[in-house]
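Exam revision sheet. Question 4 asks you to relate a sequence to its structure. Input first:
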Amino acid sequence: MPKPKPYTKYHKDGTKLRSGHFKNGEQVGEWTTYDKNGEVYKVTKMRAGKK
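Answer key, structure tokens:
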């Protein structure tokens, strides 16, 4: 059974934009979106099989 793989995307200036995990090519678990200052903007809970 594959483990979830961490993923982080960054703004052009190098601050975090979004982070979370992928499993079998789908977003799973908590995904965090950051504002332009790198502060947490929102947290979304993803469920496998839901798009």
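Marking note for examiners. The two ends are 21 Å apart (CA to CA).
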